[in-house]
Amino acid sequence: MVTTRTMLVSAFAALLLGLTAAPAAAAPGPDNTWPANLSILSDDDVNVTWTGGALRIADPSEVPDGQRAPIVSGMLLLAPHTLATPANLVRAFTTSATTGVDVEYRGQGPDGTWTEWTPAGTALAADVPAVQARIVLTGASAAISAVVLVASAGPAAPARLAAVGNVYRVYATREGLVGGTTANGHVIVSRDHFVALPSRRGLAPKGTGDYTVRVCTTSGSRCEFAPVWDVGPWNTTDDYWNPAATRQSWKDLPQGRPEAQAAYQSGYNGGKDQFGRAVGNPAGIDLGDGVFWDGLLLTDNSWVDVAYLWTGSGVRGVVGSGPLNIRAGAGTSFASKGFAATYAQVPIECWVTGQSVAGPYGTTTRWDRIGSGQYISHSYVSKTTGGTAPAC
Predict the structure, then answer these.
(1) Domain assignment of residue 20, given as a range
(2) What is the pTM for the complete model shown?
């Protein structure tokens, strides 16, 4: 007897076979089943190439600088895809995929914000109208010939905790590595403004702040809002800011405790990271030099307070030109409290009327309050998502 499942598998097998020779372009218009085009590369892809009928590592000698681990990797970021019917689960059907191939996706809500990246086959907490997938290759021989993505309704995943109160004190190290390439393909410049976290789940595509942190000194005197553009420093699967129900690795650790910190302080995992290296410090975040020296005015590695802003909701403003001074009041004469990096998505609690400022997005007297005693001129905000901010 031929079952429906057998028919589906056969249909996908036939579709994949047709894609092996050369990936087809995605079907025009919304669709819940579509082939991934693995042959079109752009500047937001990292160390991959299409050759010999497969997506492969472009340079086996290239190792992500921020991870400090001798493991070659690459990533293809596919274009966002609008669904015909909102869904919360995307499955990936692959052909000729070797070990070291991971298909991940994220969902975009009606307000334009993105969920975290999650492995294909894992459900999101709610239905979304659009998704985006990426192919991650790990190891010099990793390769894949074709992928068909299928979106459907599935059991909802546990909801993540809101950003309110979800602030953790972790140890920060300076990334440095000027001239190196981050996990999302950004080439690090002097006094750069970005951060690295030890998980790809919060890795923003190059030139975006889809995943932004607020990192502050423990006194709260200085803060910076910066995009997550790298993975590291010790691990790559440690989304420690998530609860055990959704944390990728080391689910037995308390939420907010990085594996490197537990290994260094308590001998967890034999005092080693996921690669078997002896952990030399408890770092849970790496700071670009501009964040480290200019945003927080640090002179040495230090404990900091970090908020993972994409885990919450509310109005967000995208900083279109930075690093932008965060002021203690609604005017440029007020003291600087830190910076908001270019592309950072900052929470707009409300707005006040203050000094008129001519910026790249017009002249305005509006100042956005992005935290207690923290204001930025709205003339530097390129766009907002998540609704309309009220007056304070």
Answers:
(1) 4-152
(2) 0.90
